[in-house]
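Below is one protein, fold included:
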Amino acid sequence: MALGGSGGGGSGFLSRARAASGGLLLALLAGLLSGGPAQARLHHLSLKDDLRQKVHLNTFGFFQDGFMRVTINNLSIKSVGESDKNIQVGFSIDRTQNDGFSTNLNEEVDYCILNQKPSREVLVIILLLDFSEKLVKVKFENKTPQLPEITFSESQATGPPGIADKSEPKQSLKDNTTEVQVLAERTHPIQSGNNSFSFQFSINSKEQEGLYSLYFHKCILGNVRTEQVPFSLDISITEQNPNSYLSAGEIPLPKLYISMAVFFFVAGVVWIHTLRKLRADVFKIHWLMASLPFTKSLSLVFHAIDYHYISTQGYPIEGWAVVYYITHLLKGALLFITIALIGTGWAFIKHILSDKDKKIFMIVIPLQVLANVAYIIIESTEEGTTEYGLWKEIFFLVDLLCCGAILFPVVWLIRHLQEASATDGKAAINLAKLKLFRHYYVMIVCYIYFTRIIAILIKIAVPFQWKWLYKLLDEMATLVFFVLTGYKFRPASDNPYLQLSQEDDSFDMESVVTTSGVMEGMKKVKKTTVSTWNLW
């Protein structure tokens, strides 16, 4: 379907922009997916000569009977001579109830979590590595039922089987005092040669349910610079809830996506029925709008299938993941293009785009491609890589820029209508148009506000098992926005928007006014006693 009007500059410009962005998009998509999707909830991460002091490896919500298994291989630290004693290396596991607070995230930059003493107020387990003695020291609050017990796999130990079970916790001196809190410490040998070990924990009670985050820490003491101490690490992580590899807050997502796909499909069918019933009043942009709910519905179906396979086997099927990424890209680009076209008044009021409108599309289309590419990279990259954080920031920034850019055409049109209502003899008509576009502007702002701000606030505020609510709000806000936009710009002879567009108003560029889709390509010629329609 052509996105531009007949014979105008809008058609050629959008066709060229769409072709260029489509070619770039397919090339980037092929490159990103050539290595296959990420291992999802069966994680494997390899870091080589990494300089970071803290690496967020993963976050997962556990229900009772869930478990995590972690295997570390080839852990090495490159240090300079005597600086070995000034380096502390280890892992931390902290438990929270939501994304809004984490034990490790709110400390000062120079603070080392490995030196912190676990307590009932700070629910954290620390695994401190001692390379000189080839030991893993596990520090935890001994009388905290909210934390699970860390156990080690004996196949990784250098000693005889059962050494971990026979090693008694080394109680701190506080055991003999009247203090309630007791800091316990257990040790486990590290396998010689490749510095390997494996540990796991299980959630055995309701008290232990929560959101668990695993971090790797490299703490530098003294005057040693972090650039002098790179580390290498190979780690495998398996996380599972009862009957699902999905995190607690993601388990309802497949059913949610399928349900919302049905709603979008029904909305699309109703819209198509309306277009077929009122053919004489249909414009090309109405058919462009019709493609949106169906593309959105397909995207949700493939997303649900993708999550279904992750839930059952721990990783996605590559073919379904690729199909989902493609439909997601098409949906995102189509949504922003349609919003911007409606905001410019294209097809309803004018058949070509002004230079300012073209500049907006030159910005929005490439930004949408970049935003969707960033989204794919985030979805297919392990959380602990250096690229993950960078692309997450790029996605957030570019998405906000796109949301801001699509508001400009509406703002420009509102400003033009305000000026026109004060200068020409059609004040009532222009004020009515102004009211309509103000409503559309408010709709866009509310859509952006709910899907980009409110949804994120819900994500970080609700308990871990209710994280899916922010996805529900996102999809419901999108559905409401689609329905309201369709209602405002419905193809009907009594639609105020179409009635208003029949007047011959002047814009910043030459515009063509049409009364219906059938009469597209005609212009109105005013005469002394009668008005007629002449073909171009």
In short: The radius of gyration is 30 Å.
